[in-house]
């Protein structure tokens, strides 16, 4: 769980990003929408620009809210900037982890290996690239039992067989 | 009508459909039993494999996962004091206390029977209420559909996290993603950045798998070293029969099922909310209040009948209005879209047989869950002890092949990773992910209807405020958007 200061920094970064993205989107949309030259105001740029306006307004609201919290935290008896409202939906998922130490580096490594895998698989082929990358992920996750690696390879072979021979989907 | 129902019954009992239900229930039981793996993830991972199936078969497979996934969260809640799904969080206290007293079998059985009662109750309400809602919604034109889409996005944004503005941001980003591809009215490429694979738009499956499966698997990976594997109780001891459970807690079961169904029918809510409401209400009205929290089978019955009581009810707004009742039904909307079917009131006319097949099938799924849950409880109790870190590579492989198989292109797998990154960053900055999915699903409806409405009124906004239905939905959207902001302001002002 982030402390109050970090929380506020996160909120400000979020607000600035959303505001800038909204403004940028407004100007970028016409560049990336092909024009037939005969569109009205309700043409293909209408809805993306509607979204751009919405994002800009939301960015302003996020920053104004943080500014209000910052001002109230400076006033005598003000709060420290932490959000006072409890999340209603989906909050239960986080309670368990918040109490335990996390290893973000492990998660980042898993994500990066998986991302690299999606770029390597067209060249190295499904079988080889999947066995190598998933074994590395398993090792990073501290799995040391050899039979689980055998099980993983059998699973990969099974997936390839099912896709190619039963579902007729040819994996790369 | 009678003929439609008879045809639906015949379709339900086709061997392949029954097999799909059984398989779906089994998959849901496995995923639900494993702490950290949600029903949403199970449905998202399985979804790509339903592409080649008949619509009804695909829906039965996914609905089986949904219903049993919500129930099975109670297995790990009871046995290892860790909820398999957020919906089972209320079951922990009493379920685990019962297990510590050597009454795990009793807790597991009460949990299963209560879940079945809640599920059947909810499915019956779905069967009778959904056609009525659809009948009203049939009168909707473009203005009403736009207002409805905005209402759906507003309400889900307002209940999905701790900031309504952040929910709206994610919904808008989802709508932006939905605009990528060919313009639906003029047919020219839009925001494709010269990438050929984007010309047909962003495929829903990679987006879904990325947002809900990749992000969840990666998030779990960082806690893999802290997992508990200490199941301290045996799972199968003597417990009450189904009928005895019904006769012992009739009021609690009925009331909690009704609470679950009522909450579930409100878009964007779901089992996580209803289960705590039902638990509190059961405790308030119980003669044995002191047992609550110390191992009360009645408390387990209240929580579990309520969380499965949402499973049918969430399908009411999903099928009739195209607005999902919770996260899993948002993914189910994607499943329908994958089959080329748009949920909404016209579905009840154009695909009446399919809709009745799905709705009646929900009842059969509950009965299959009763059977499988009863017979296979010891196996799923063991499943609950499998550490997530062992499962991570297996799940990642399924995510990859699922995304790849939709269009036989690695680009979709890369897109999946992009959405996974978006979900991880969003979670880090406390932005809810669900509204983004809703934006992707409801974006095209909102865009087409607003453009149609404005073109028909020659750009005049009167088309919206001349329609009482549109005015009602837009007013409700404003209320649901402003209420948390005003509440937040008053809390800050007066505390």
Folded structure, characterized:
The complex is a heterodimer of chains A (172) and B (495). By secondary structure, chain A is mainly alpha-helical. Chain A has helices at 4-28, 46-74, 92-98, 104-124, 126-140, 146-166. In chain A, helix 5 runs antiparallel to helix 6 (146-166). The model of chain A is unreliable at 79-99 (pLDDT under 50). Chain B is mostly helical and 495 residues long. Helix content of chain B is 73%, strand content 1%. Chain B has 22 helices and two strands. Chain B has helices at 2-12, 15-33, 39-46, 55-80, 91-100, 104-137, 142-159, 164-179, 204-221, 242-248, 250-264, 271-285, 297-313, 315-321, 327-338, 347-350, 352-383, 388-407, 410-428, 434-456, 462-465, 468-494, and strands spanning 181-182, 189-190. In chain B, helix 7 (142-159) runs parallel beside helix 22 (468-494). The longest helix of chain B is centred in the N-terminal third of the chain and has 34 residues, at 104-137.
Give the structure's gist in a few sentences.
By secondary structure, chain A is mainly alpha-helical.
The level of helicity of chain A is: 55-70%
Biggest sheet layout of chain A: none
Task: Give the uncertain stretches of chain A in residue-range form.
Answer: 79-99
Strand count of chain A: 0
In DSSP terms, counting alpha (H) and pi (I) runs of 4 or more, how many helices of chain A? 6
Mean pLDDT of chain A: 79
As a percent range, the share of strand residues of chain B is under 5%
Share of β-strand residues of chain A: under 5%
Please tell me what the overall shape of chain A is: flat
- Give the overall silhouette of chain B: globular
What is the assembly state of the chains in this entry?
heterodimer
User: Span from first to last CA of chain B?
Assistant: 58 Å
């Amino acid at each position: 769980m982030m402390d109050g200061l970090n929380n506020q920094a996160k909120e400000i970064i979020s607000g600035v990003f959303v505001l800038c993205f909204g403004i940028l989107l407004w100007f970028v949309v016409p560049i990336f929408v092909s024009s037939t030259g005969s569109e009205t105001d309700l043409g293909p740029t209408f809805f993306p620009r509607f979204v751009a306006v919405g994002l800009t307004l939301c960015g302003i609201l996020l920053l104004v809210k943080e500014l209000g919290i910052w001002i109230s935290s400076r006033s005598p008896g003000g709060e420290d900037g932490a959000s006072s409202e409890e999340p209603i939906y989906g909050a239960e998922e986080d309670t368990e982890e918040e109490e335990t130490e996390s290893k973000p580096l492990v998660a980042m490594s898993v994500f990066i290996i998986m991302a690299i895998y999606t770029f390597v698989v067209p060249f190295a082929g499904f079988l080889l690239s999947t066995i190598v990358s998933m074994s590395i992920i398993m090792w990073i996750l501290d799995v040391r039992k050899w039979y689980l690696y055998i099980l993983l390879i059998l699973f990969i072979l099974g997936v390839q067989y099912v896709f190619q021979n039963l579902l007729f989907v040819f994996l790369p | 009508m009678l003929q439609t129902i008879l045809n639906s019954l015949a379709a339900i009992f086709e061997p392949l459909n029954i097999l799909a239900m059984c398989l779906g229930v089994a998959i849901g039981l496995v995923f639900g039993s494993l702490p950290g793996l949600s029903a949403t993830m199970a449905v998202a991972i399985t979804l790509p494999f339903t592409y080649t199936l008949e619509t009804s078969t695909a829906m039965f497979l996914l609905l089986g996962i949904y219903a049993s996934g919500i129930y099975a969260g109670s297995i790990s809640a009871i046995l290892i004091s860790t909820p398999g799904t957020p919906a089972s969080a209320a079951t922990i206290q009493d379920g685990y206390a019962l297990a510590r007293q050597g009454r795990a079998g009793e807790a597991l059985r009460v949990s299963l029977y209560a879940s079945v009662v809640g599920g059947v109750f909810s499915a019956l309400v779905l069967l009778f209420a959904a056609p009525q809602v659809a009948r009203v919604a049939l009168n909707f034109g473009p203005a009403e559909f736009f207002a409805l889409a905005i209402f759906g996005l507003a309400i889900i944004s307002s209940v999905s996290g701790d900031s309504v503005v952040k929910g709206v941001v994610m919904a808008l980003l989802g709508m932006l993603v939905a605009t990528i591809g060919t313009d639906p009215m003029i047919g020219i490429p839009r925001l494709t950045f010269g990438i050929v694979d984007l010309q047909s738009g962003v495929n829903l499956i990679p987006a879904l798998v990325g947002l809900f499966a990749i992000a969840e698997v990666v998030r779990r990976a960082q806690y893999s070293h802290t997992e508990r594997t200490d199941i301290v109780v045996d799972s199968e001891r003597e417990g009450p029969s189904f009928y005895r459970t019904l006769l012992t807690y009739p009021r609690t079961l009925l009331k909690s099922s009704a609470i679950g169904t009522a909450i579930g029918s409100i878009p964007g809510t779901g089992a996580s909310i209803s289960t705590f409401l039902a638990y509190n209400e059961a405790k308030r009205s119980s003669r044995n209040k002191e047992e609550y929290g110390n191992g009360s089978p009645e408390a387990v019955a209240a929580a579990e009948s309520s969380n499965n009581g949402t499973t049918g009810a969430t399908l009411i707004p999903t099928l009739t209005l195209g607005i999902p009742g919770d996260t899993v039904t948002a993914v189910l909307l994607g499943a329908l879209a994958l089959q080329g079917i748009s949920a909404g009131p016209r579905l009840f006319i154009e695909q009446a047989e399919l809709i009745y097949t799905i709705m009646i099938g929900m009842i059969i799924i509950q009965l299959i869950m009763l059977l499988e849950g009863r017979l296979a409880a010891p196996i799923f109790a063991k499943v609950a002890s499998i550490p997530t870190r062992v499962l991570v590579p297996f799940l990642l492989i399924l995510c990859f092949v699922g995304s790849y198989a939709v269009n036989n292109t690695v680009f979709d797998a890369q897109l999946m990773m992009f959405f996974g990154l978006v979900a991880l960053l969003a979670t880090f900055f406390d932005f809810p992910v669900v509204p983004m999915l809703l934006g992707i699903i409801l974006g095209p409806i909102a865009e087409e209807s607003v453009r149609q409405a404005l073109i028909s009124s020659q750009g005049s906004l009167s088309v919206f405020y001349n329609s009482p239905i549109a005015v009602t939905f837009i007013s409700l959207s404003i209320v649901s958007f402003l209420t948390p902001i005003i509440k937040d302001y008053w809390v800050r002002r007066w505390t």
